[in-house]
Amino acid sequence: MEDSERPSSSPSLIDPKKGFCKANSTFYSKRSPLPLPADTSLDVTTFMSSQPHRGTTAFIDASTGHRISFSDFWRSVDRVADCLHHDIGIRRGDVVLILSPNSISIPVVSLAVMSLGAVITTANPLNTAGEISRQIADSKPKLAFATPELAPKLAASADISVVLTEDDEEEIVGSTRGVRVVGVLSEMMEKEQSGQRVRDRVNQDDTAMLLYSSGTTGRSKGVDSSQGNLIAHIARYISEPLAPPNQTFLCTVPMFHTYGLLIYAMATVALGSTVVILRKFGLHDMLAAIEKYRVRTLVLAPPVLVAMINGSDLIKAKYDLTSLKTVRSGGAPLSKEVTESFLEKYPTVDVFQAYALTESNSAGASMDTVEESQRYGAVGKLSSGVEARIVDPDTGRMLSENETGELWLKSPAIAKGYFRNEEATNEAFSSQGWLKTGDLCYIDDDGFLFIVDRLKELIKYKAYQVPPAELEALLLTHHEIKDVAVIPFPDKVVGEFPMACVVRKPGSFITEKTIMEFVAKQVAPYKKIRKVKFMSSIPKNPSGNILRKDLIKLVIPSNFKL
């Protein structure tokens, strides 16, 4: 029997309550099976467009009120794909970058690119030109889609051509401040198709998406997800719908991120739901959109729930939120206190948690019923098609229920690995296809997953991931800093923010303000250092690695309260 094969010949070996199989120490999902297509040459775009539903409006721009129907949306996808193939020469395997705030253009471009067997990658609009250029150097895109105001960030990458995603007549002529402009998206969406639909044959193992995930060391890595991985992602939501059919969602999270792109630009499209898109998140913009468009479902990061709790009296006095029925939370665990406080303030809204990673393409765990959501502290039961193992990080021994260890996941949705990074891939993915999440957890007697801690050292600022090593490397370039460690400092509003523990060089009197300004000039806003503590030394092990947990205990008092 294969290492991870379900022991179908002996179903009694799988505990019906928790899904655990003693024969191979594997937990199996108790959800409905994934409805995967038999055709292995089917691309994810075609798979999505073939799903039956009765939805009418696909997307609404919250700021302008502009709507696009499903029929017009899919027509636009086909037209953009036709232009990319015949006019620009995009072929199977070519990489296309999107640099844009939340917009209807993101799902149109993404699905058009992937229908050709080409690869989509996204960049955070808040990132600096230098950070974006490093991603471009790694992924080597042939083309970029960008707004006129963001296009100048691509100027350092001279080889890349740009399609503008917004009409701006002054910027369209010639080039946009050093950027070679080759088209405008709105014109591509209106251009009649050539009628020639001959394209490269797509295999489901072909890379379809490169989303960059911050690693625990060094710079971010491109997560290599295949057509098949994304089809499995869509199949999961067909099996486990986010909400009843044809509901209205509000997109509050960045669409360049796995959370926004996979749910709001893909899953909801396949399900026939309407998505109202916020170009940029603002609490009052979000609340106004819920009222105006009668939004039923939100997907939020925990800090937004906290903001809604803290401002509940003013919010309920000013906005009609009676349409809101469900909030799904992800990105970080929700405490029992926050969940209970939210339900007390908004008693007609259900709160469902979920757990996934960029590398898992939404495969993980989730709460799917009100009864499940009352298991406080848990992040849910294993998603459809997911297998899990709990592994002792020190011995490698596979553990059973109620034993804490590192969570390993396996699913058809799990990414292939990290793009052009064999070392990182081998570290995070086993030879049998298990994703080592880096999260310490346990699964209880009823099959609920509980996240206890994380082995990874990422700082979670709102929904953003901040790798401490990146900021440490930057700070060490300052001529007055001898040593440094960056740790997460808990914050009621944002979850965590980066705090620098700094050892000055002899004779230096560098200040907290100078250090914070030094970093702020060179990184995206969410990566900024917001607190500094000066120390005589940084605790490290004999190998020279920072003892980050010891440092956190030393710097942040155990009785510290938010």
From TrEMBL:
<keyword id="KW-0547">Nucleotide-binding</keyword>
<feature type="transmembrane region" description="Helical">
    <location>
        <begin position="256"/>
        <end position="278"/>
    </location>
</feature>
<comment type="similarity">
    <text>Belongs to the ATP-dependent AMP-binding enzyme family.</text>
</comment>
<protein>
    <submittedName>
        <fullName>Uncharacterized protein</fullName>
    </submittedName>
</protein>
<dbReference type="Pfam" id="PF00501">
    <property type="entry name" value="AMP-binding"/>
</dbReference>
<keyword id="KW-0812">Transmembrane</keyword>
<feature type="domain" description="AMP-dependent synthetase/ligase">
    <location>
        <begin position="53"/>
        <end position="419"/>
    </location>
</feature>
<keyword id="KW-0460">Magnesium</keyword>
<feature type="domain" description="AMP-binding enzyme C-terminal">
    <location>
        <begin position="470"/>
        <end position="544"/>
    </location>
</feature>
<dbReference type="InterPro" id="IPR020845">
    <property type="entry name" value="AMP-binding_CS"/>
</dbReference>
<dbReference type="InterPro" id="IPR000873">
    <property type="entry name" value="AMP-dep_synth/lig_dom"/>
</dbReference>
<dbReference type="Pfam" id="PF13193">
    <property type="entry name" value="AMP-binding_C"/>
</dbReference>
<keyword id="KW-0472">Membrane</keyword>
<dbReference type="GO" id="GO:0005524">
    <property type="term" value="F:ATP binding"/>
</dbReference>
<dbReference type="InterPro" id="IPR045851">
    <property type="entry name" value="AMP-bd_C_sf"/>
</dbReference>
<dbReference type="GO" id="GO:0005777">
    <property type="term" value="C:peroxisome"/>
</dbReference>
<dbReference type="InterPro" id="IPR025110">
    <property type="entry name" value="AMP-bd_C"/>
</dbReference>
<keyword id="KW-0436">Ligase</keyword>
<dbReference type="InterPro" id="IPR042099">
    <property type="entry name" value="ANL_N_sf"/>
</dbReference>
<keyword id="KW-1133">Transmembrane helix</keyword>
<keyword id="KW-0067">ATP-binding</keyword>
<dbReference type="GO" id="GO:0016405">
    <property type="term" value="F:CoA-ligase activity"/>
</dbReference>
